[in-house]
Amino acid sequence: MSDLDPLRAKIDAIDSELLRLLNERATVAKEIGTIKNRDGLPIYSPERENRVLRSLVERSDGPLTPQAIRAIYREIMSASLALEKDIAIACLGPAGSPSHQAAKSKFGSSVRYLFFADVADVLAEVKADKADCGVIPIDDPDHGLANQTLDQLAETEHLSVCAEIFLASESSDDAHTAARFFVIGRNSNPPSGHDMTLLILRIEDKPGALVSALEPFKTLSINLSHFASRPASRGSQDIFFFVEAAGHTRDLQMVDLYQKLSKRCRAVKVLGSYPTSAA
């Protein structure tokens, strides 16, 4: 008998138990899906996903790395989502594109992917309830901000940014040098405890307007981590400023941020709150 035989037998026994537990987990997931579909609840819950993954990493004693744990559970969760419902994720094509890779890193291999030529079509598919979520690029280190995405987000209604994805390049796995994507859904997220909120501030294109608009963030000690600008609609001299504020929109509303901003901006639009990638 080889020294490997008893170890392989042990692995086989563990695999049998794992398979039993995975099927048991899948059965519970189907029951959850039945309740969600009955009550009209969204199938995908980013705050729940982040909380589960964070807890698993914290409870692990090794030797699996946090990255390995997340990768394994990404596919387990993907299989569970597919059992709860025929999940469809819209993204920019073709298959294998950066948007598709980013979507797979978030939703795994068991869901169905729909491919479109531009961001407007992705958003339209989600808005029409033909896709459960959409994945759209926001920026990357080589090409900067995705202006088409920003313009479409400024115009869209009844959709919400619900998660963010970082897709590392082949040369780096650092989030600061990775392409960034947003997950778009029809429902807003409850707080996860580690959230960011994306806002559009519409202000006049005149000296001092931006400084005035950002003053409430300073007064309330709200950190801003991302910043972009785009011209407003044709025929207007206004500017859209996209800012990411630390905290969930419920937290920001409680400190009267939006009321203070409305006094300094022509309009304020909340695009969504989502768990941070570090959560």
Topology overview:
Layout: H1 4-39, H2 46-59, H3 66-84, E1 88-92, H4 98-107, E2 112-116, H5 119-127, E3 133-140, E4 144-145, H6 147-155, E5 160-167, E6 179-185, E7 195-204, H7 209-219, E8 224-231, E9 238-246, H8 249-254, H9 257-262, E10 267-275
Parallel strand pairs: 1-2, 1-3
Antiparallel strand pairs: 3-4, 3-6, 5-6, 7-9, 7-10, 8-9
Helix pairs in contact: 1-3, 2-3
Structural summary, described in words:
This protein is α+β, with helices and mostly antiparallel strands. The protein has 3 domains: 11-36 and 46-84, Chorismate mutase (Chorismate Mutase Domain, subunit A, Up-down Bundle), CATH 1.20.59; 86-187, 3-Layer(aba) Sandwich (D-Maltodextrin-Binding Protein, domain 2), CATH 3.40.190; 195-275, ACT domain (Alpha-Beta Plaits), CATH 3.30.70. Helices cover 43% and strands 25% of the residues. It is built from 9 helices and 10 strands. The chain has helices spanning 4-39, 46-59, 66-84, 98-107, 119-127, 147-155, 209-219, 249-254, 257-262, and strands at residues 88-92, 112-116, 133-140, 144-145, 160-167, 179-185, 195-204, 224-231, 238-246, 267-275. The strands form 2 sheets. Strands 1, 2, 3, 4, 5 and 6 form a 6-stranded mixed sheet that branches. The protein has a 4-stranded antiparallel sheet with strand order 8-9-7-10, sandwiched between helices. Helix 1 (4-39) crosses helix 3 and helix 2 (46-59) runs antiparallel to helix 3.
- Structurally, the number of domains stands at 3
The description of the largest β-sheet is:
6 strands, mixed
Radius of gyration from CA coordinates: 21 Å
Number of helices: 9
Count of beta strands: 10
Q: Which range best describes the helical content: under 10%, 10-25%, 25-40%, 40-55%, 55-70% or over 70%?
A: 40-55%
How much of the polypeptide forms β-strand, as a percent range?
25-35%
Broad CATH class of the largest domain: Alpha Beta
**Can you write the helix and strand succession as a string?**
HHHEHEHEEHEEEHEEHHE
> What's the average pLDDT?
88
**What name does CATH use for the topology of the largest domain?**
D-Maltodextrin-Binding Protein, domain 2
Fourth-tier CATH superfamily name of the largest domain: Periplasmic binding protein-like II
Overall 3D geometry? Answer: elongated
Note the gap between the termini: 48 Å
